[in-house]
Amino acid sequence: MAIALEYEYFKPRALDEAVALKARFGEKGRFLAGGTDLVNNLNDESCRPQAVIDLKGIETLKRLEMTSRGLFLGPLVTFSDLIDSRTVKSRYPLLWESAREVASTGIRNRATVAGNICSCVPCMDSAPPLVAYRATVLIRGPEGEREIPAAEFFRGPRKTALKAGELLAGLLLPRPPKHGAAFLKQKRYRGEDLAQSNLAVLALEGKKYRVVFGSVGPTPIEAMKIEKLLEGKALTAGLAAAARKLVRKEIAPIDDLRSSREYRFIMAEVMLERGLQAAAARLKGKGPAYGTPLV
Amino acid sequence: MKKTITLTLNGETRAVDVEPNDILLDVVRDKLGVKSPKYGCGRGDCGSCTVIMDGRTVRSCLILAIEADGAEIVTVEGLCRDGLTPLQESFLKHNSFQCGYCAPGMTLSATELLERKASPSREEVQEAIAGNLCRCTGYTAIIDAILETAGK
C-alpha cells in the first residue's frame, strides 16, 4: 500500500551535506537509516516530513570499529552487524546479547541501533546496554559537534535530547572493565515480540554491579539503590532477595496491551535475580553461554 | 518527483520509474511483475513480503523503492530458475505449506539461514523463521523440512 504523503527524497554522499539538509528542513526533515520505524511512521502519518534524508549514501556512517576511545558504532550499524561482529561478542557481550533479542532476522538486517534509540520507544532493547556500558552519544548539528552520555539522551517516550537540526552521528562505548553480562527480555511468547520488560546487568570485579531496566518506565532506569545494596557483598540468596524487594522502588511500569503493571513488577524481580546470577557466574568464566535465554 | 532507479531483480537488470513514496514491495509486484513477495501486515511483523536484498533478507514493505536503486534483489522466482532447490523439494516432501501465503518469505529466510550456517540447530531454525508467520501448518513441518535439508 503506497504511502499517501508526498515528500522529497535526498541521498547525500557526505555528512556535511546531510547536516545542511537537516538544517534547511528542521523538524520537517527526517533522517532515514534502516527505515523499519520511519516507513511505518510514514504509512500511518505519525510523522509528516517534507524531506526524507537517506543516510545510506555516506559510507563512513557504516563504521563499526575499535578506536582509541572504545567501540565506535556509526548510525548505519545494524543489529545484524552487531551479531556478526566478533569484537562485539567478545568485548561487549551485553550489547551482543541484546542485539539478538531485537525483532526478527529480516528486521535486524535493516534496523539500526541509532534508529532504535532515536525512535526512543520505552521498550527499545538497545538502550539499557548502552547505559550500562556508559556509552557516549555523538551528535552533529549546524553548530558543530557535541557529546552526551547515553543516560541523558533519553528524555521520555519518543523524546530524545536531539534538537531539530541535529544528527546522531555515532555511539562510543568506552573499553569496559572486565565484566560478566546478562541481557534479559521478557516477551509474550518466544519468537518475535517487543519487550514486556528488559534488563541489562553487568557484574564487575570487586563485587560491583550495573543494573539497567527497560520497558518498565518512560526511559531506561538505572537501579542505583539496588547497585548500592549489592556493592561489595557476596551474592547470596539473602542478598538477592533483598535486591528483589527494591525493584518496586526503582521501576515505574504501566499497564498496556503487552503486559499488566503488576506482571511487569513480578517479572522484573525474577529477571533481576537471574540476571545477577548469570552475570556474576560469567564474570568467573562460568554460567550459561552468552545467548542462552534466561527468561 | 519521479526518479528512474536501476536494480538487479533475479539476475536481470531492470529500470523502473518510482516516486519517493513508492514502497519496494508494490514496485516489485505491480511494476516489475514479480508476484511471490506478498502484502501481509504491511508493518514488518509477518514476513510475507520478504525479499533478499544485497544478500540479506529484508522486509520489502518497509523499504522505499527509491532506496533500492543499485541493489540486487532475489525472490523465490530467482532461487529456482534452474528447478526447485533442495530446500523447496524438502518443503514439498514434508507438506510444509497449506495456503502458501507465507511460503516465499519462509523459503527466503530459510535459504539465508542455510547459506550462513550449514548445520543449524532446531532453535536456530526457529529463530531464523521467527519473523515469518504461518497460520496454517503450525511450523513443525516447516522446521522439519529445513532441518532435513541441512542434514543432507
What does this structure look like?
The complex is a heterodimer of chains A (295) and B (152). With 295 residues, chain A is α+β, with helices and mostly antiparallel strands. Helix content of chain A is 35%, strand content 23%. The longest helix of chain A has 23 residues, at 261-283. The model of chain A has no long low-confidence stretch (mean pLDDT 97). Chain B folds into 2 domains: 3-79, Roll (Ubiquitin-like (UB roll)), CATH 3.10.20; 86-151, Orthogonal Bundle (DNA polymerase, domain 1). Helix content of chain B is 35%, strand content 16%. Chain B has helices at residues 24-31, 76-79, 86-93, 103-116, 122-128, 140-151; strands at 3-9, 12-18, 50-53, 56-59, 72-74. In chain B, helix 3 (86-93) packs across helix 6 (140-151). Classes of the chains: A alpha+beta (295), B alpha+beta (152). The A-B interface holds A 1-9, 32, 35-36, 39-40, 42-43, 52, 54, 56, 80, 103-107, 109-110, 190-192 and B 1, 3, 19-23, 26, 39, 42-45, 47, 50, 56-59, 61-64, 66-67, 105, 109, 112-113, 126-128, 130-132.
SSE topology sketch:
The complex is a heterodimer of chains A (295) and B (152).
Chain A lengths: L7 E3 L4 H11 L3 E4 L5 H6 L7 E4 L9 E4 L2 E4 L5 H6 L1 H6 L1 H8 L4 H4 L4 H7 L7 H6 L3 E6 L2 E6 H4 E3 L2 E2 L6 E7 L5 E8 L10 E8 L3 E7 L6 E2 L1 H7 L6 H14 L10 H23 L12
Helix pairs in contact in A: 10-11, 11-12
Chain B lengths: L2 E7 L2 E7 L5 H8 L18 E4 L2 E4 L12 E3 L1 H4 L6 H8 L9 H14 L5 H7 L11 H12 L1
Parallel strand pairs in B: 1-5
Antiparallel strand pairs in B: 1-2, 3-4, 3-5
